[in-house]
Amino acid sequence: MARKSGSHSQITGPRIRQAALRLFARHGYAAVSMRQIAQEVGVQAGALYLYTSDKQSLLFDLMHDHLTDLLAAWDAQEKQADAVARLEQFTRFHILYHLDRPDEVFIAYMELRNLTPDNFASIERLRRRYEDALEEILRNGQAEGTLSVPDSRIATLALIAMLTGVNTWYRQGGRLSPDEVVQTYWEMVRNTVGARG
Amino acid sequence: MARKSGSHSQITGPRIRQAALRLFARHGYAAVSMRQIAQEVGVQAGALYLYTSDKQSLLFDLMHDHLTDLLAAWDAQEKQADAVARLEQFTRFHILYHLDRPDEVFIAYMELRNLTPDNFASIERLRRRYEDALEEILRNGQAEGTLSVPDSRIATLALIAMLTGVNTWYRQGGRLSPDEVVQTYWEMVRNTVGARG
DNA sequence: GTCTATATGCTGATAGAC
DNA sequence: GTCTATCAGCATATAGAC
User: Fold this and answer.
1) Nearest-CA residue relative to C1' of C15
2) So what's the pLDDT on residue A3?
3) How many beta carbons lie within 10 A of that of residue B48, not counting itself?
4) Is A4 a residue whose pLDDT tops 50?
5) How many CB atoms lie within 10 A of CB B194?
6) Which helix H or strand E contains A184, and what residues bound it?
7) Are A150 and B184 within 8 A, CB to CB?
8) Can you tell me which residue has its alpha carbon closest to the C1' of nucleotide D2?
9) Is the dihedral of CA A165, B118, B20, B37 positive or negative?
10) What is the distance between the alpha carbons of residues B184 and B181, in angstroms, rounded to a whole number?
11) Which 50-69 positions of A have CB less than 7 A from strand D?
12) Cβ–Cβ below 8 Å for A192 and B188
C-alpha cells in the first residue's frame, strides 16, 4: 500500500520538536506562535496538533527530555573512585554536555515560569536529582577529608551556577577551546572546594 | 486651580513601572499585556501611553534604571584598599544588593532577548561596566600577589554567575540569614581566587 | 497526514469625548 | 489625565474536506 503523497509521520514529529526548540530558545515560549513553528517545519498550523496535544506539552517535552537525557548521560559515565577525581569528571562532563546543547539548556532555565504547576514540579524533581549527584560527591569528599566546603548544599548550587554560566559567554571560535575552558574552570572548582593537591 | 478629580500624574507613572516590573518578573515580558498592567494600576489601557511611548521602552527603562542604580551604588561605596578586602566587599555588596531586588535582577537576566538591538547593546554596555569593576579587583590582586586566578576575565564571569545564583534559591525565612549567606559565599569566593590568609 | 476554513478571543496602539 | 471605542491583526485550537 503506497503512502499518500505528503505523508511524513516519521519525520514531521521530530522536526516540529526541533523547530520549537530553536524558536523557543531564540524568542521565548510566549513570543512564539504555533504558526511560526508550523512555517519553520513547512506544514500548516493545524497539522501540528497531530503530534502534540497543545503548545504547553511541546515545551514540557523539550525540558523533560533534556533533563532525562542529561541524567542518563551522567549515570552512564564510568565513575572515578575518589571524590576529587569524580568532581573533576563532573566538571568536565557538565561543561561539555551543556556547551553541546545551548538551546536545550537555555530553555530549561528560562522557561520554567511558563510551565503549568504540575509540569513545573515534575521538571524541578529532575533538576534536583542532578544537583543531588553533585552534592553526593561533595559529601563523600568531606567524609574522605579530601575536600572541604562550608555547606555542601550551597556549594552544590554555587558550582552548578558557575559551570552553567559558561553557556552565557562561550562562543565557538573564541579565545579558548572547550578543553581549555574545562581546564580553567577545573582549576577554580578545585580551589572553591579546597581540594588537596 | 483645583485638579480634576482622577488626576494623579505624579503617582501613576511610578505605579505603572512598579506593576510592569512585578508582572514581567512573574510571567515574562511577552506574556504580559498592556491591559494587565493597566488593570494592576487601576486605569484603562489607553492611559498607559501618557507615561510610556510603548511596551518596549517600559522594559528597557526597567533594565536600564536597575543597572544604573547598581553601578551608582557600587561607586558610592567607600572602597577597601587592598584587593582581597575589596573582593570581600564586592561579594557582600553583590549578594545583598541583588537579594533586595529579585524582580529587577530576574528581568535584567531573562528579558535580554526581548530588547531591540539598540536597547540590547545599551544594556550590555552597562553590564560590562559592572563586570569590569570586579575584573579590576582581580587584576589588582594578581599584581599585588595576594590572589591568583587562571584567567581574570573568566574568573570574573564565573564569580558573578556564582553570586547571582543566590537569587535562584534564596527564600526569606529559610535556613540561612542573608548575613550567613554572605559568609558562606565569601569563604568559597576566597578559595576560588586562591586568596592568601 | 495535511489542508483550508473558522470559532472565539486577545493584542498593541490610537482618536476623540469629557 | 483618564475614559470609551475602535482598528487591524494575530493567538490557540478545532472541524471537516481531500
Assistant:
1) B46
2) 34
3) 22
4) no
5) 17
6) helix A178-192
7) yes
8) B47
9) negative
10) 5
11) 53-56
12) yes
Of A114, A154, A165, the CB nearest to B184: A154
Domains and CATH numbers, chain B: 9-52 (1.10.10.60), 54-192 (1.10.357.10)
Q: What's the pLDDT score for residue B28?
A: 98
Q: What is the pLDDT of residues A124-145, one digit of tens each?
A: 999 999 999 999 999 999 999 9
The model carries a pTM of 0.96
- A150/B168 Cβ within 8 A: no
CB-nearest to B162 from A26, A162, A184 is A162
Confidence of residue A10 (pLDDT cuts 50, 70, 90): confident
Q: A184 and B28 in contact by Cβ < 8 A?
A: no
Q: Which residue, among A128, A115, A103, A100, has the nearest Cα to A61 in the 3D structure?
A: A115
Cβ atoms of A48 and A37 within 8 Å: the answer is yes
Residues B67 and B108 sit within 8 Å (Cβ to Cβ): yes
Which residues of the protein are close to the nucleic strand C, CB under 7 angstroms?
A 4, 6-9, 12, 38, 42-47, 50; B 32-36, 45-46, 49, 54-56
A165 contacts: CB under 8 Å, gap ≥ 6: B157, B158, B160, B161, B162
Contact A123, A67 (CB under 8 A): yes
Separation in Å, CA A47 to CA A9, A56, A60: 11, 16, 19
Q: Is the distance between the Cβ of B2 and the closest atom of strand D smaller than 7 Å?
A: no
A48: its cell numbers: 501540528
